[in-house]
Design brief:
The protein is built from two helices and 17 strands. It has 261 residues and is mainly β.
């Protein structure tokens, strides 16, 4: 699941309703278990994890942009490295995934004092990663019509047509960030022809928070998977996941969270 220490890990399985739909796609000749269950690999789990955030406080220094320097009297800035990892079941691939982070700002004195402003994701990386794909487009060019007139007969001759081709580069997004300068930053991953959603994904954000506050982060990770069998791709289905904490003796949670900065 990656080199980084996992904070939360989940097994992703498709719902019973989606299993029934896949069974219909398999057709009447599909192999089933002793209790009529859909054959493997549909019940094999996929795995996702959320890694331990790595947080570094940023200090003002010579050469810092003036836009940032003016804010250090009122705010603190922290660089946060986040990691989420994907491991698909055998015969399965992730088609889409979304990793979300909600920043919750609290006062340091923990006395219920209202916080005037909230922490935000001041910068995100990556914001957009695209795959370039070259495609060839064929176009048909019709020949010219030439008319000849000989009294009292006229004739029209059409010259042969020509086919031409041209190459175009088209871009497909595979990673997109969301909510820059907001409190709920997120990244969406999309499978492309060149790249699978697999292995560790390193993500970065710069958190700006008011001084004398602490920030807690709540995470979410959803994914859609597609099963492949005999070269046939089945209808993608959402995975049902419940995260297990690696810190608190395997405690289960549907909303992973941790102190951030």
């Amino acid at each position: 699941m990656g080199e980084e220490q996992s904070l939360f890990v989940a097994e992703g399985r498709i719902s019973e309703v989606d299993l029934l739909l896949l069974e219909e796609e398999l057709g009447p000749g599909a192999d089933r278990g002793t209790q009529g269950e859909v054959a493997l690999p549909f019940r094999e789990p996929s795995y996702v994890s959320i890694g331990e955030p790595v947080v570094t406080r940023l200090e003002p220094h010579e050469g810092i942009p003036a836009e940032l320097a003016r804010q250090f009297d009122e705010y603190e800035f922290h660089q946060v490295q986040l990691v989420c990892s994907f491991q698909a079941a055998a015969g399965c691939r992730f088609t889409r995934a979304r990793f979300t982070t909600e920043l919750v700002t609290e006062s340091k004195d923990d006395g219920g004092r209202a916080v005037a402003s909230q922490a935000i994701a001041y910068d995100l990386f990556p914001q957009l990663l695209e795959e370039a794909r070259t495609i060839t487009i064929a176009s048909q060019r019709w020949g010219m019509d030439l008319s000849f007139g000989f009294e009292p007969v006229e004739a029209t001759v059409t010259l042969p047509s020509r086919e031409s081709t041209e190459e175009q580069i088209r871009y497909t997004s595979r990673v997109e960030a969301f909510d820059l300068r907001g409190t709920r930053p997120a990244w969406r991953f999309i499978r492309t022809e060149q790249r699978e959603i697999s292995g560790p994904q390193r993500l970065f954000m710069v958190v700006r928070k008011p001084r004398d506050t602490v920030v807690r982060a709540s995470f979410g990770l959803t994914a859609t998977a597609q099963f492949m069998l005999g070269g046939h791709g089945f209808t993608p289905a959402d995975l049902v996941m419940l995260f297990r904490s690696r810190r608190r003796s395997g405690e289960l949670t549907d909303q992973p969270s941790t102190a951030l900065c």
